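Task: sequence in, structure out. Protein: Hydrogenase expression protein.
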Amino acid sequence: MRLRLRNTGDVVDEYRFEPVGDIAPWTTVEPQSLRLYPGTTGTVELTFAPPRTSDATAGPNAYAIRITPTEHPEATTVPEGNLTITPFTEVRAELVPPTVKGRFRGRPKLAVDNLGNTKVTASVSGSDNGDQLSYDIHPSNIQIEPGRAAFVKATLKPRQIIWFGSKEERPYTFAVKRSGVTPLDVEGTYVQRSFLPGWLATFLGVFLALAITFLTLWLAYKPQVRSTATAIEEAGVSTLPPSPSAPAAPPAPPATSAPPVASAPPQTSEPESDSGSGGGSGGGSGGGSEQQEKKKAPTAATAVQQLAASDPGGRHICYRAYLTGKGWTSPECDGDMAGTVGQNRAIKALNIAVYGVNGTAGVAFVHDPDSTNGQGTYNDVPWTSATDGNDNYIGTAKQSAPDMLGFTINVDNGNKAVCQSVHQHNRDWQNTACDKPNEGEHYIFAGTLDNGIWLEAVKFTV
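Result:
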């Protein structure tokens, strides 16, 4: 569009033009300044180039141009207008993981991303060739806001059980259906294992063959006993051979170990640096040396267990971040910041522990060096989970690991929500967002799909 300006003053003046407002980054002014004589008129051209992303909200968007006179800066004026951005839809779906294994069932998750600038409503169904699998999909109908993702849990069950033999691959397809649009198909593979492993079937076959062979030989060569007893009975002498004695039972194995006991859920820990060891040289006499225990850095589970001890009836979440060039931060809890702001340190991994919400689960969305569409990837990494009071780790705690662009998290209590706010590189803090378990949204995605925007800090509450 064009903006016309008239100099109503009595001196030659130069006017500078500056876009302001939410869509200012997408607005350019040519030329950026005009020099006008008194009573003359000039024209500049405004060009709007909103990106094809969810940031360009569909509908009317207000814009403004600040005009500042050089000679009379107090006479600044700001004309305003509206730019209507038309809606567009772009949906992407990915199986996490694409291949699942099991004997009786498989549990893949389908991540559906709304990359458009308007809300998407869709349904999800499953199918395969030969109707070899049954599908339990929850939720089967989803609504996704622009720039957000929805996760659909599915349970695959084979209609026939493989008792013996090798595993079989059963391809299947999830269809994301929208009104008036060709369904989006996502292909996966369910690897069905046999109920009994192949080596056991071979062992049973060999054992059965040996048993039949032994029985045949026993029946063929069984000794026959003939009685030739006569009048010897009168002398009280027996001509029968002595009965063989029963073989001795094998000795009982020694009780060298106690019965197994159930172990606590596994906890991941990072390696620790070696502490100094004291030792004198030469032939010193006298006292023994004291052993000093290596102090382990407190994890999120350490912090949440301390909160649970002081508030056993409450709900708590503690967390820490693994940063570029720094390593693990100290644990923070219940809305405090973990990470750094403005130090150009990307988050590589998160350590999270909860209490009062029946555990938590999560998965990281990371930088993809081989990306061809400018977006990151889930990298085929499965979800990790932990029960109340235990550590859960998402991402990779290595300096060489890819930067974390986002993550998906939930808590295991169907009536409780987890809320998050993240600080992105060059994007400041994002608004706090929560999952909505009462509306069927049991997961929350934080961050961005942009391959160049990483996370720097996080906050959580439950």
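Residues 228-294 have pLDDT under 50 and may be disordered.
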